[in-house]
Amino acid sequence: METESEIAATAAAHAADTEYLVRKNMTSGYQLFSLLTPPVYLAFSLSRYGRSSFSVNRLLRATWIGGAAGIAAGGAFGYVRYGFSSPEHVQKQRSRVTYDVRGSENIICIVRDYPIHTL
Q: pTM for this structure?
């Protein structure tokens, strides 16, 4: 059975891992929405209002608004995904993201033939 200090340490580590992963999702959301917004806005504005009402200023404003929406969407998605997951799953995902490891569960990262970390 875990003591109170172990439970508190696990909860603190889970909160820190969740915060890190939510920030990563916010960045990914910003990048994705900033890339998708200009062509979507361009198609929408040209089909709805025609070529005469198109301006670069509006396109750039739409890009910023899309980026802000991406931050909010990415953060919400990350919080829902990782905030309610088990601490073990969140820690494993943070290790994958931090070390950019993909693939097998038993990968040993080796630098100069010394194992650094086993995931």
A: 0.74
Please state the φ and ψ torsions of residue 115, each to the nearest 5 degrees.
Answer: -70, 130
- CA torsion through residues 41, 46, 48, 52, sign: positive
SS3 state of residue 108:
strand
Q: Give per-residue pLDDT as tens, 62-115.
A: 999 999 999 999 999 999 999 899 989 999 989 888 887 665 444 455 444 455
Residues in the chain: 119
In angstroms, rounded to a whole number, what is the distance separating the alpha carbons of residues 35 and 107?
Answer: 33
Which three-class secondary structure string do you get for the chain?
CCCHHHHHHHHHHHHHHHHHHHHHHHHHHHHHHHHHHHHHHHHHHHHHHCHHHCCHHHHHHHHHHHHHHHHHHHHHHHHHHHHCCCHHHHHHHHHHHHHCCCCCCCCEEEECCEEEEEC
